[in-house]
Amino acid sequence: MYIHQVAAYLPAQVITNEHFTRLNGLSHEWIIERTGIRERRKAAPGENTNTMAVEATERVLAQAPLFPTAAVDLIVGATYTPHDTIYTVAHAVQRAIGVTDIPVVSISSACSSLLNAIEIVEGYFAMGKATRALVVVSEHNTAYNNENDTVAGHLWGDGASALLISKERLAPTDLRMLDLITAGAGGIGKADVAVTLKPVEKGIVMPHGKDVFIHACQYMASVTRKVLERNHLSVADVSWLIPHQANLRITRNVLQSLEMPEERAVSNIDRLGNTGCAGAAIALAEQLDQIQTGERVVITVFGGGYSYGAMLLER
Fold first, then answer.
1. 53-75 as b/e: b if 16+ CB within 10 A
2. 83 is an active site residue
3. Tens of pLDDT, residues 75-87
4. Which among 105, 108, 200, 208 is least buried, having the fewest CB atoms inside 10 angstroms?
């Protein structure tokens, strides 16, 4: 299967670290040192998970004349910050593009949902139930965030991305998916309490950030090695690493573990904050034109809960 095109949508409003300095005394330098985040985006009034997903979808379809809207025969949406848990992000996208009578599903496995969504596409393709899929990942973190939370309130940003995936190659520039691994790690460490979002009780909280940090570093590095070993490749064979955009210190730790130079990592955490399961897809959209023929890309993710995965791509 092939990723034909990727596009992103980011809200216009920029929230700098100075906002949190004024709000709760966290300095710009303190936030930079611990997270690498300088600013993040915030959805405007009237924007939400669904509207951002529709914007990203309209952009990706506009960029893909070889992938007409009418050809879409599967929509998979992913988010942990839903606008509506019944009329899901995938349903909203379906209504917006006007393609009826096709499979439409939404999933959530926290920040690793991008790869789980793509794995669902892989299953539909394998069963012969679809050939042209739209995957859309969207997070409205600020709708659930408590900005006064000095532990995690400064981490979150909003954004969305959409990917067009086909069973057959449509263009020479398509990214071929060579392998994909996902797994849950819900029984590890403090997975049950480290990061939670219980809508009937409270918004996003992260009381055990250190546990998240430790396991994210371990799992993102180990699953990257695993996907490479399964394909008889080494780290030296990878041109670009796109990690989940959670924390620049996590990215650097993973790079150090893999013995990979920092310039080969794609990062948007400094500009966008943690955009959840949309972060790696937004990074892929931003990097897409820079990936040369023959280059390989690994996307590696870790989500609260815990869940993790890696995907190996080649142009």
1. bbbbbbbbbebbeebeeeebbbb
2. no
3. 999 999 999 999 9
4. 200
